[in-house]
Model the fold of this input.
Amino acid sequence: MAEKLWGGRFSLSTHKLAEEFNASINFDRKLYRFDIKGSIAHVEMLAKQRIIVEDEARQIKDGLEKIEAEIEEGDFEFRDEDEDIHMAIEKRLHELIGPVAGKLHTARSRNDQVATDFRMYLRERVDEISECLRELMQVIVDKSREKIDVVMPGYTHLQTAQPVLFSQYAMAYFQMFKRDFLRFKDFRERMNECPLGAGALAGTTFDIDRDYTAEKLGFDKPTSNSLDSVSDRDFALEFLSAASICGMHLSRISEEMIIFSSAEFAFLDLPDDFCTGSSIMPQKKNPDMPELIRGKTGRLYGNMISLFTTLKGLPLAYNKDMQEDKEPVFDSVETLISSLRIFTEMFAKMKLNEKKMAKAAGGGFSTATDLADYLVRKGMPFREAHNVVGKTVAYALSKNKGLEDLEMEEFRQFSRVIEGDIFEYVVVAKSVDSRKAKGGTAKSSVLQQIKEAEEFLT
Done:
C-alpha cells in the first residue's frame, strides 16, 4: 500500500482488475509536458508566497526537469499502477529527490492539476489546428485566383442550376473554413482561464497567488469559482463541436471531389499520390483520401456525442467519469489535423478539366433563369415569366435542343416581347458575368471575395 501516494486510508491493495480499469496513463501521458510546466509554475508560486523555502523549490524544479528529459529520451517507465501521468511524475520525483517531493502537492489537487494540464494541451493543439486551417484557406485562395476564369455548373439538389465560376465555388468553402477558424479562435479565448489553485473543489487554506500561476502558464486569468473550475469540461465540448463542424465542411467538399473526379463528371483529376488502385481492376483510380476524410467525420461526431453523454448527469464537483474526457479529445485532435493536412495538399495538386467543366456549365438549361430575368426586364411579372420559360424549356427538351439553339421564331411563339437580343442572355458567359452583386459569381465579384480573403489571411 505504501506504493500509492494516496494509500494511507486503505487496508487492502487495489485489485489488479480495478487497477487496470482505473489507469489512464496509457493515454494521458500525452500531458506530461503540460503537467511538468504546471508543476514548476506551482512550486515557484509556493516559494514566492513562502509556503515552501527556495531550496526546496529548486530541488523540486530540478527533479521535474530531469523527469521531462527522461520522458523525452524514452528512459521513463510508464506503469499502470501509477494510475495517471500526474501520479507517475510525482512518484518518480520522490525517487529522485526524496521526501521534499511531497511538498509539490501543497495547495493543489489532482482535480485542478488535470483541468489545468488539459486546457494547456488543448490550447496548444488548437493553435496547430488553426494554422492548418490558415494553410488550407491560403491554398483555396491561390487556386481561386489561378483559375479565376474557369466556369462550371452550379447545383441545387445536385441538379444543374446556374453556371458559376469555379473560383466562386472554391471561395464558398473558404467561407466555411473561415468560420471554423473563427470558432476555434473564439473558443480558445473563452477557455484560457487557469483552474490551478481551485484544489479538490473548495479552494485552499494556503495563501496562494493564483494570478501569478495563471500568468506564468500563459492564461488570461484564474477561473472564478473553484467548484466549477474542477468540474468544467465545456471547453472540451466546445472543441469537439467545432471539430465536428470543421469535419463536416471537409466531408462536404470531399464528397464533391469524389463525385467530380468520377468518369461521369470528369471535372477534376486528383493527384496520383493521394489515390489508390484496385486489387482486381487495373484501370481503377480510387479517391481513397477524400473518402477517408468523409468517413472520419463520423468519428468526430461520435467523439462529441460520447463526451456529451458522459457529462450530462454529473453532480458537482469532480467525478471519475471525467477521466473519459481525454480520449475523445485526443482522437479528434489527431483526426482533424491529419484530415486538414491531407486535404490541403490534395486540393493544391488537383487538376481541373476546364473544357469539360465549361461544356457542362451550359447543360441542363442553366441559363433559364437569365431568360426569365430578361422577360422581367421587358415588363413581364416574374411569375408569368417563370411560366413562359418553363414552357420554353419543355419545348426545347422535346426538340432535343438547348435554349441557345432555338431560333427566334421558336422563342417568339412563347412571348412576343422576346427580341433579337435574347441570344446575349442565354449564353453561359453572359449569365456568369451578369451576376455582379456583392457575393455573386461575376468575375469582378469573385475577385473582390478573393481580395477580402487575402486581407483576412494577412
In short: The beta strands are 151-156, 159-165, 193-194, 221-222, 268-269, 351-352. The CA atoms of residues 55 and 185 lie 41 Å apart. The first strand starts at residue 151 and ends at 156.
